[in-house]
């Protein structure tokens, strides 16, 4: 834990194969945990900002997740929507890996 926020474990790195995403629910949050090719780990909200759909039911490629409902895309590193129909960016979480565990920082 650090003094700049509350860190919680959301998954083990070994549970998320490279190039895939996994849905996680914790503390009332619906999260998407992404293990990008090359090793980066990213965590975002799992519900699309355009319409209710779970992003982990979509397609992950090159750091972009495509919503399965209307094909809107988000950059999982930044949460930035990549054009229509996305009108609101996706919330992302600061992440770190310790002892094989993926941790996110919750707002203080």
Question: What order do the helices and strands come in, and which of them pair?
Answer:
Elements (H helix, E strand, L loop, with lengths): L5 E7 L7 E7 L2 E7 L5 E5 L13 E3 L2 E3 L6 E3 L16 E2 L1 E4 L2 E6 L2
Antiparallel strand pairs: 1-10, 2-3, 3-4, 4-8, 5-6, 6-7, 9-10
CATH class: Mainly Beta
Instruction: Kindly report the average pLDDT value.
Output: 93
CATH architecture, by name, is 3-layer Sandwich
Instruction: Tell me the total number of β-strands.
Output: 10
CATH fold type: Rieske Iron-sulfur Protein
Q: Low-confidence segments, ≥5 residues, pLDDT <50?
A: none
> Sheet with the most strands?
4 strands, antiparallel
Percent strand: 35-45%
Number of domains: 1
CATH homologous superfamily (4th level) name: Rieske [2Fe-2S] iron-sulphur domain
Rounded radius of gyration (Å): 13 Å
The secondary-structure class comes to mainly beta
**Helicity, as a percent range:** under 10%
Strand order of the largest sheet: 2-3-4-8
Query: N-to-C terminal Cα separation, in Å?
Result: 12 Å
Shape: globular
Secondary-structure element order, N to C: EEEEEEEEEE
The total of helices stands at 0
